Amino acid sequence: MNPKSKRLRLIAKFLISAAWLVVILEVAPRLFLTPTHLLSHGRLLGYDDSSWRLLWVMRHQLHVEQTITPATANLPRTGEYDEYSPTRGWAVKPSLNNTTPFGEGKFVNTNSKGLRGKTEYGYARVPCKKRILVLGDSFTFGTEVSDDETFSHYLESDLPDTEVLNLGVQGYGQDQMLLYLKNEGIKYRPDIVVLGFVFVDAYRNLWNFFAFAKPKFDLTGDGLKLTNVPVPTPEQVLAREPYRSRAVDLGKILREKINWASGVNERKARELTGRILDEMAATTRSIGAVPVFVYMPVYDEVADSSTSRTSREQYFYDHCQAEGVACLFLRPKFRETIEQGAKFETRAHWNPEMHRIAAQEIAKFLVEKGLVQEKPVDAPHR
After folding, report:
1. Cα separation values, 3 from 17, 67, 89, 202, 214, Å
2. Average of pLDDT values for 176-194?
3. What are the tens digits of pLDDT across the range 187-214?
4. Dihedral angle of Cα 364, 367, 368, 370, to the nearest 10 degrees
5. How far apart are CA 315 and CA 267, in angstroms?
6. Comparing 5 with 172, which gets the higher pLDDT?
7. Containing H/E element for 224?
8. Which range (24-28, 233-237, 244-248, 273-277) has the least confidence?
9. What is the spatial distance between Cα 73 and Cα 60, in angstroms, rounded to a whole number?
């Protein structure tokens, strides 16, 4: 055999071996990351966009919307009241009429633009009325409570001659809130923009998939760079899934587990979120409005009885101080109320009483800052 033929045979053997290696490396993860396997061993996944995407696909392929398993117990859900959005991933459906996604007696209505409640708000301002726009996630939207039990509703009741527009959306990170503000919120020309800040939302800023595919900001030397837009449709996500490499997915999942354990992702989330908050404040100020950031304690934070700021609260405080943003912390009032015997929710979303107290604290804070007028003592609540 001449040298050329021998060399060609060696190349062919190498290519065949490489192909088999690729097949073996891909087959094993595909067997491991099947919907059926994930349904039984969901804890093998982590907190990364590959894991969230696989869980979303599993839910749709196996129709496990109501199935509670290790895989689905913490699966984010957008619910029957959301729809696809090419710019934000998902948005609240407009014109919902007395739907009850949270059970009997808990009504969800939305206006023609998808804002919580039945009230229609035009972009044009109502004369002699202050306008407050509220951004946030499911705690702001009011998951598990009725329209008239959200803190936005109570806040409007507590302030005279004031409109409060609830732009909360379940599952949002601060990145989606910023886009909502830029693309829609500023059209309402608010006087005040209140951000309901939930710390865990900062982790969502790291991902391009959570409750569904979503936009993502990358932090570059030139600032924030928006990626993954337009967001693929549900049909596109499902159509692409058979062609995705499970070996790549598994590699990403393992890499992100290491990044979480080492603290790398915590640092990334804080840095990226800080820049997003900067942009949110700058956008608010660019239309002549005042940004107000409210730290909202959720889950285990609610029962934290410490009198000093937590690490998360200190991060938030330091950022507000650096940017000159008025910020309010609700945990002290929650702690005081719990000490007086109140029973607050620490495993799920806020109950109506927590929303009411949050509204009272926000109203008092806005009055103290001279941003709104105080409600007369004898004025009736709406």
Report:
1. 21, 63, 58, 61, 55
2. 98
3. 999 999 999 999 999 999 999 999 999 9
4. 160
5. 11
6. 172
7. strand 223-227
8. 24-28
9. 15
100 CB-near residues (< 8 Å, 6+ apart):
106, 107, 108
- Helix-then-strand count for the chain, H and E: 13, 9
Element (H, E) at 7: helix 3-32
Among 7-16, 22-31, 207-216, 313-322, name the one with the lowest average pLDDT: 22-31
Question: Is the per-residue pLDDT at 36 higher than 70?
Answer: no
Residue with the larger pLDDT of the pair 303 and 316:
316
Q: What is the pLDDT of residue 43?
A: 63
Opening angle at CA 211, ends 183 and 93, nearest 5: 50
Q: Which residues contact 50 (CB under 8 A, 6 or more apart)?
A: 209, 249, 252, 253, 256
Domain boundaries, the chain: 81-238+263-368
Pairing of strands 216-220, 223-227: antiparallel
**3-state DSSP percent of the chain in helix, strand and coil, to 5:** 45, 15, 40
CA atoms within 13 A on the CB side of 6: 3
Between the CA atoms of 168, 173, 175 and 176, what dihedral angle is there, to the nearest 10 degrees? -40
Virtual torsion, Cα 346, 352, 353, 359, nearest 10 deg:
110
At 16, which amino acid appears? I
Q: Which fold has domain 81-238+263-368?
A: Rossmann fold (3.40.50)
Could you give phi then psi for residue 329, rounded to 5 degrees?
-115, 125
pTM of the model: 0.88
Residue 278 CB partners (closer than 8 Å, separation 6+) = 323
| pLDDT at residue number 57 | 85
Helices 174-183 and 264-286, axial angle in degrees (round to 10)? 20
Distance (Å, rounded) from C-alpha 110 to C-alpha 133? 15
Q: H or E segment at 283?
A: helix 264-286
User: 114 is written with which tokens?
Assistant: 């998808």
Helix axis angle for 264-286 and 246-262, nearest 10°, is 90
* Complete DSSP assignment for 53-64: HHHHHHHHHHT-
More confident residue, 13 or 179: 179
